[in-house]
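Q&A log
Question type: sequence-to-structure
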Amino acid sequence: MIQYRRVWLLCAVIFVLAAGGYGQWRWPHAIPNLLFGPPASPIAIVVSGNIEAHESVLSFTQVQAPIVELAFDEGAQVAKDTVLARVDDSLYRRQTEIDRANLGVATAQVAVNESTLAAARSSVDSDGFDLIEKQRDYARAEELVKTNAISIQGRDLAFTAARQSAAVLAHDQAMAEVATTNVALAKANQASVAAKLALDEVTLGYATLRAPFTGVIAVRQTELGQLAGPGVAIFMLDDLDHVWLRAYVNEPDIGKIRLNEAADVTTDTYPGRIYRGRISFISPQAEFTPKTVETHAERVTLVYRIRIDIDNPTHELLPGMPADASIASMPSGR
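Response status: OK
Response body:
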């Protein structure tokens, strides 16, 4: 009997709540809270690390010469393709001029050989017509000698003339083949010189150092007059538009975060300022905790490296700057 009374009492409470009766509770949100308790509040996983950015060490390649121009100093912001430095390119420019002249000579040689080939082919055509005529003369002499209209000597002379014409044709055909070969060789030489000139122009372009992307000059490692060459660093350029936080997540928490999940990044440099980021990488393999990493939680043996990409339009976040990230997560993971 007491159990039935409890059921009726519970139904009466539900009815009162549905009618909008007590406090600020409203139907149907009050029922799940009444029966099962309030929902679990999200917790935050806090990780620490350092800001990183794409850094490119810029140097001259394929050329070795003294530096004659350094347009920017450390801290300068430069746009993509901006000229950063130049070396003395007089030697490379002179070589380019020489090969350009050689290309002109090679092109003229091709034209000469093509003219020779055209003349040889004309001679072959003329020889062909002459041979046909001489063969006809010999055929007529062969018939006339049978009727004693001409002497045998006249027939033999016609035969000899036909054979001489055939020999001249063979000679000119051979000369035409030689002329054809000479044209091919001249064109090959022209192509070789043109390729050499193109290489010189590419090498000449290496005498100018340009910014491969828009960024900020972090380090200038040379001065005017210094000998530049392959492997000699000139500038270090940072891409501050695209920075990220390298951090480590403890092994028990790795199941509570996901790729593309939002994260709020803060730094001691700008207290109270929050930078929006997202998780762009989660290492598939665990590693031992780096000695340089300090987490808010107690250090554990195994951690997973993550990368959080951060919007940095004002370039406030700089490489090496320590930062913290808060990642919302449910206690049991998702």
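Response note: Residues 90-200 form one domain.
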